[in-house]
Design goal:
This protein is an alpha/beta fold. The chain has eleven helices and ten strands. Helix content is about 45%, strand content about 20%.
């Protein structure tokens, strides 16, 4: 379980960028943080990974206070996927994926086997993609490699910051569905950041709606649909509903 206890983050003398917030995410859950830009979603993700430190409160993983852990070692056991992907341009696909296992001292044969398994998992033919450089791949293919790289050291936790936001809608939907399947297959815990409520509704076990550094509502997609906490949550839910109604009208009018 990932548990945030009275976590807050303040930069300089300004108002809190986050919190204080309390949140518990169960093992194997796919939790989606959703809200407008600047609401604290990415800050929360960076706090879990200790890319930044909280101003107050503590974060626990399986009951262990993360402040007591070495941050470098912690990050090597937590997968992180960014919107801009961040593949090393001078390294091949295989070399990008094997970075963390190499840092952890895995045997060469184990690394090679893991790279092959992961390329198959993200639906990239190893014989075709392993030796290619990032600039030779499409955006969707690069993000598949980014997901494989994040999974390379068999993390129990995956953190994903707008992982599909820069992709075209068709590729975005495809990768979102595929990642949901990977999440379930591997039995990992995922925290995914997005500003898109439709994406959140389709992927999440739990949706955490944020605004101005606070958690406005935290619950299952069905709970948000049935009992939105306030007009802000209602307005966010109305967006996918409106899209669905527009599609229904279009198909209903089709000959």
């Amino acid at each position: 379980m990932i548990r945030l206890r009275d976590i807050s983050k303040t930069y300089g003398g300004g108002p809190p960028a986050l919190g204080p917030v309390n949140l518990a995410i169960e093992d194997r859950e796919l939790a989606v943080l959703v809200g407008p830009s600047g609401c604290g979603k990415s800050t929360m993700l960076s706090l879990v990974n200790r890319l930044i430190e909280p101003s107050a409160g503590r974060i626990e993983i399986d009951g262990v206070d993360m402040a007591l852990c070495d941050p470098v070692q912690l990050r090597r056991h937590i997968g992180f996927v960014f919107q801009d992907i961040g593949l090393f341009p001078h390294l091949t696909v295989a070399e990008n994926i094997e970075i963390t296992p190499g840092l952890l001292g895995w045997r060469r044969t184990d690394i090679d086997s893991r790279v092959l398994d992961l390329l198959k998992l993200v639906r990239l033919d190893p014989s075709h993609y392993a030796g290619r450089l990032p600039h030779e791949l499409s955006g969707g293919e690069q993000q598949r490699v980014g997901i494989a790289r994040a999974l390379a050291a068999r993390p129990k936790i995956m953190l994903m910051d707008e992982p599909f936001g820069a992709l075209d809608p068709l590729v975005r939907d495809e990768l979102g569905s595929e990642y949901r399947s990977i999440h379930d297959q591997l039995g990992i815990t995922t925290i995914l950041v997005t500003h898109d409520m439709t994406e959140a509704m389709l992927l999440a076990d739990r949706i955490v709606v944020m605004r101005s550094g606070e958690i406005v509502q935290n619950g299952t997609p069905q709970a948000l649909l049935d009992r939105p906490a306030d007009s802000f949550v209602q307005s966010m839910i109305d967006t996918p509903r409106r899209r669905a109604n527009q599609l229904a009208q279009m198909f209903g009018e089709a000959p």
